[in-house]
Amino acid sequence: MQRADSEQPPKRPRCDGSPRTPPKTPSAAAERSPGPDLTSDHQTWGPEQVCCFLKRSGFGDPGLLERFRENEITGSLLPYLDESLLEELGISSLGERKKLLYFIQRLSQIDLDTMKEDYP
Predict the structure, then answer these.
(1) Is the C or the N end of the chain the one with fewer CB within 10 Å?
(2) Please, are residues 37 and 53 in contact by the beta-carbon 8 Å criterion?
(3) To 10 degrees, what angle do helices 47-56 and 62-70 make?
(4) d(CA 57, CA 6)
């Protein structure tokens, strides 16, 4: 005679090594959200914060990050980067340069939008 579902013993939790356990990776939103090392004002970022921004934007190549550090690219310099400078820094793909320029442009727009809210 089988027991009813309500009489079934509770299932034990899976171990981390179980193939059905999802990997413990941070969500995409968590990776993009500003952390303690990135202030909302990109003008105050040093080269390390710029590299953190690059990683979160999908530009994690160690060589590229090192070139940004060597050239001391700070947050205040980001708006002045253009396609030719990005190519000199090691972003050879036109699509990648345009993608990074888009992210930089969005940074500047976010600051302007914040300023408009603060000063009506």
Answers:
(1) N
(2) no
(3) 150
(4) 49
- Each residue's pLDDT tens digit, 50-107: 999 999 889 999 999 999 999 999 999 999 999 999 999 989 899 999 999 999 998 8
In this prediction the pTM is 0.61
C-alpha 96/C-alpha 109 separation (Å) is: 20
d(CA 33, CA 96): 21
Give residue limits of the domains in the chain. 39-120
Single-letter residue type at 112: L
Tokens representing residue 16 in the block = 């981390």
